[in-house]
Write a structure and sequence with these properties.
heterodimer, A: 263 residues, alpha/beta, Rossmann fold, four-stranded parallel β-sheet, 11 helices, B: mainly alpha, Fumarate Reductase Iron-sulfur Protein, Chain B, domain 2, 16 helices
Chain lengths: 263, 445
């Protein structure tokens, strides 16, 4: 497993005069956050295994502007958006996949009005397509029969009505999927959205991630599955606050697939 | 005597309708204080949303108990109000049960109205118990103290009173018909069906015809005057939703919940900044100089768009949004319902100044005087409130608009957010990492 990942950039593709099948938008968390980097690598391993011709922007990628926009800084958001769109359009990008629902939502919904029109998919949707096209095969492996609950990311679920793609993947892994009392369109936020990830919460009687973790623990899971690097961090912290980190892991669906396939 | 009664009825009717029209015009004027926003696209989808969500109550039943009870009251009121038509005609022309020529159908209809009226009463009593005895949490939040709590109960009392009058009126009418009283009895036998009110007959047992007529007339008058008062109560009450739910669902946002608007004024400035050919010292175009520089975001109701103001008038304060809000559930001050209530209260205050032909007074605004910064910064933008609203209200859009004002006009974001925004500005990520290190993960093991 010590082999170096092969991660081509758009610039390299351009030098060869080729276009990749899809651009993998890594996002800030996926690039810099130690926990999220593991998700990024797991996803890259799956892409390689499925022989997907992908590329990243690498150092040419910059924050989509999502946290700025949701904090009210429309100027900063649009500056980021316009800069990113210039880069994406220069490379004539058609299709984008990302493992971050915030990047997904912003590029998919808020970039078109500023001149950025791409087909944008969340990594769970992309993986589901790979499975359906027969390019990737997944068997239960180490997760078969495990009690697992899935935490819906707000910006994949409510914001964009995608509840099934991650669940389809979990079913492929033959897990025992147990839904929380609050799930899908009624799922509770992990507490990170709208800029909350980067600030202290307002005064209250509990942290949102702890409340959500309590809801997850009600299902008595062996593992909490997530589909967003921020949810992942929040739920991991929540599990730690309940001193359950020895028994309950928090993993991204992509990580689970990579592990099941021994990648 | 008959003619006096007819004139009195007509006068009451005209006064009530005129007052109602005056209030509707004020409502329309106040909503139009909002900024323009185009919500005329995709008319078919809008119509179908209105039919499903407002007419069909599809989102109400997400909470089955409240949802089903609400449907009973809603259906009851709409259908029983068909009977209003007859009541109005009888009132104006001094007729008795003018639609009775429908024969068996008529008897069936009156019978069905009675059963519905009973179901409405049962539902209303259950609602009252849920609010005042069971004390369901969302009805007892801090923003529900005083008027909002009383308003909710007044509506329930009104409805029970109206339904009771309707049933008592029918009971007296039925007894009068049985007695063969003049004006009431018909050669064709008993007209109308009285499956519920027949059980009220013991209450009026032994009364003479004149006493029965007093009861029948009094309940008839109370019923009709009650409805006319209720109609005019709407404007001052959360109950306005019975009318506004329809336009509100029609004009609701159709784009994905996660999609926020891109501010056009910002787009223009950003384009100018990015355009290498733009001359920063160019004199403004002719005419442009007189324009007031646009304010970014919202600090008062007039900075919001008219759909957001319509939302505020439509809110019936059920609190489903607040009970789903992650911030509220964890004890933060934010309550999406309060955002809507504050917006309406402030808009009413502005409207009151307009009623008095005063200019909108400076010194008071939606931000700080109604909605605090602490509330605004507690939002996670998760859209749970938008999803929960049974009639398509979008509290999140108001929160974002007010955050825009705080950040772009006042630079008043919480400090940690300012730090992460400077990071985005300087190195393209909310954390202080160098953009040149963005691909380092690929080489790490």
């Amino acid at each position: 497993m010590a082999e170096v990942l092969k991660v081509p950039t758009m610039a390299e593709y351009m030098v060869e005069g080729k276009q990749p099948e899809v651009l993998f938008w890594v996002g800030c968390a996926g690039s810099f956050d130690d926990r999220a980097k593991k998700i990024t690598k797991a996803f890259v391993k799956i892409l390689s295994k499925a022989n997907v011709e992908f590329a990243v922007l690498g150092t040419e990628e910059s924050c989509t502007g999502d946290p700025a926009k949701r904090s009210g800084n429309e100027f900063l958001f649009q500056m980021q958006a316009v800069t990113n769109i210039e880069v994406l359009n220069a490379y004539e990008v058609k299709k984008i996949v990302t493992a971050c629902p915030h990047c997904f939502n912003t590029i998919k919904n808020e970039y078109p009005g500023l001149g950025g029109n791409y087909e944008v998919v969340h990594h769970t949707q992309f993986l589901k397509d790979l499975l359906e096209e027969g390019r990737l095969r997944v068997e239960g492996g180490k997760f078969k029969g495990k009690r697992i609950t899935f935490h819906d990311p707000c910006y994949l679920g409510r914001a964009n009505n995608e509840y099934e793609a991650p669940r389809d993947l979990l079913r492929k892994l033959e897990v025992e999927l147990i839904e929380m009392r609050k799930c899908k369109s009624q799922g509770l936020c992990c507490g990170a959205g709208g800029g909350q990830m980067f600030k202290e919460p307002e005064k209250g009687n509990k942290d949102v991630n702890v409340l959500r973790t309590e809801q997850a623990l009600e299902t008595n899971p062996e593992l909490i599955a997530a589909g967003c690097p921020f949810c992942n961090t929040m739920m991991t912290d929540g599990v730690k606050s309940k001193e359950k980190e020895a028994e309950i892991e928090v993993k991204d669906v992509a990580e689970m697939i990579a592990e099941a396939e021994d990648l | 005597m008959q003619i006096i009664s007819q004139i009195a009825f007509l006068a009451a009717f005209i006064v009530a309708i005129s007052f109602f029209i005056r209030n509707v015009r004020r409502l329309y004027r106040n909503i139009k204080l909002g900024k323009a926003i185009d919500r005329t696209d995709r008319p078919k989808e809008r119509l179908s949303n209105m039919i499903r969500v407002a007419l069909g109550q599809s989102k109400m039943v997400k909470r089955p108990v409240a949802g089903i009870l609400h449907i009973l009251v809603y259906v009851g009121f709409i259908i029983i109000n068909i009977e209003m038509l007859e009541i109005v005609i009888d009132g104006i022309f001094g007729t008795h049960r003018v639609f009775s020529f429908l024969g068996g159908t008529y008897n069936f209809l009156i019978g069905a109205f009675e059963i519905l009226a009973l179901l409405v009463i049962v539902s209303i009593i259950t609602f009252w118990i849920r609010r005042n005895v069971v004390k369901i949490k969302r009805f007892w939040s801090s923003e529900m103290k005083g008027w909002p709590k009383n308003d909710a109960n007044y509506i329930l009392y009104f409805e029970v009173a109206l339904m009771t009058c309707f049933l008592l009126m029918n009971a007296a009418d039925y007894q009068l018909q049985l007695n063969g009283a003049e004006h009431y009895a018909s050669q064709e036998g008993i007209i109308g069906g009285f499956p519920v009110s027949q059980f009220l007959l013991p209450l009026i047992d032994g009364l003479g015809n004149s006493a029965l007529i007093v009861i029948e007339r009094t309940t008839w008058w109370l019923h009709i005057i009650g409805i006319l008062i209720f109609l005019n109560y709407l404007y001052y009450s959360k109950h306005l939703h019975i009318l506004l739910a329809f336009p509100n669902t029609y004009y609701a946002k159709l784009t994905p919940k996660g999609e926020l608007t891109n501010l056009e004024a910002v787009t223009n400035e950003v384009k100018l900044m990015m355009d290498p050919n733009a001359d920063p010292f160019a004199s403004p175009e002719a005419g442009a100089a007189d324009e007031e520089p646009e304010k970014f975001g919202a600090s008062d109701v007039t900075d919001l768009n008219w759909v957001q103001l319509l939302n505020a008038y439509t809110c019936t304060e059920c609190g489903r949004c607040t009970s789903e809000c992650p911030a509220n559930q964890t004890g933060k001050k934010l309550s999406p319902r309060k955002i809507m209530m504050d917006t309406r209260d402030r808009l009413e205050e502005v409207g009151e100044q307009l009623n008095k032909k005063q200019p909108i007074a400076e010194g008071k605004q939606l931000l700080d005087d109604y909605i605090t910064r602490e509330e605004l910064w507690a939002c996670t933008t998760c859209s749970a409130c938008v999803e929960a609203c049974p009639i398509g209200i979008d509290p999140l859009s108001i929160i974002i608009e007010m955050r825009r004002y705080l950040v772009m006009e006042e630079s008043a974001a919480p400090n940690e957010l300012n730090v992460s925004m400077s990071n985005i500005e300087n190195n393209g990520a909310p954390w202080p990492y160098n953009q040149m290190d963005r691909l380092n993960w690929a080489k790490e093991n």
